[in-house]
Amino acid sequence: MADETIDKEALLKRLKDGEEISPVVGSYGGDLFEDKDFVLEALELNGRIMEYAAKKLLSDHDVVLKATKFSPFTLRNCPETLLQDPSLVLQVLAVDGTALQLVAPELRADRNIVMAALASSGLALEFAAETLRSDRDVVLKAVQKDGLALAFASDDLRSDQDIAFVAMASNTAALRYIEPSHLAKDRDFLLEAVKKVGGSVLQHAPPDLQSSEDFVLEAMRIDSSSLGFAAKSLRGNPDPDVSRDTFEE
Asked: Distance between CA 200 and CA 238 in Å, rounded?
């Protein structure tokens, strides 16, 4: 018992000092990693200690919960019973919503669970059940958090222009995921996007529109910053005021 205590204190000190974990752990007996209290304490110092913990601790709610605060993907090695535990899953998703991909299928179809995942990562929508990727409120929450989540919405919702504008307000690159895809090249749609989102949306417009004087001028009348996203040939003089005056003549 005395030797075990010495080992425990020595290992914790080395972890606290920031030593590389692999050689440190290799110096100690496996029994230490079956001790729940030790593992909980060690996790405070280095989340990777879970890689060496006894298999039985992967079924321990307290240990797994603490481990997932450092790496939600600890769930990958946990038994199915924990992946079906809503209380544990909710706490894990608060750290990283994309851990939704690891939980039981029935929880990925649970609206409350998915909404909790989206609160920390809009991209968690990718791992939600298909029915929820067709749920307007769910998709709106996702694209508000991260516009690129539009890529994982149902085709019907990707063609919903209100949702598209919300997504582009979060990330203008969401333009590439709009359905039908030809809208991303449509002059009138892009001008409406400038009105709703701002001139920066033009950075994702097709080159022929970025280099169209008429189009860029019209976009500038809505938002003068549009010029900054036009083709270089139209930006002309490096002085933005001079370029802008040229368009306004």
From this structure: 18
**Cα separation of 116 and 86, whole Å?**
11
Per the CB < 8 A criterion, the answer to whether 75 and 103 are in contact is yes
How many contiguous H segments (helices) and E segments (strands) does the chain have?
16, 0
**234 class by beta-carbon count within 10 Å (0-12 exposed, 13-18 middle, 19+ buried):** middle
Determine the Cα–Cα distance for residues 177 and 95; give it in Å rounded to an integer. Answer: 27
Strands of 39-162 (E only): list them.
Answer: none
Q: Could you read off the pLDDT of 36-86 as tens digits, one per residue?
A: 998 899 888 888 888 888 889 989 989 998 988 888 888 888 898 989 999
Contacts of 41 (CB under 8 A, 6+ apart): 12
One-letter amino acid for residue 142 of the chain? A
pTM score of the predicted model: 0.80
Q: Which residues of 181-192 are buried (b: 16+ CB within 10 A; e: fewer)?
A: eebbebbebbbb
- Look up residue 167 and give its amino acid: A
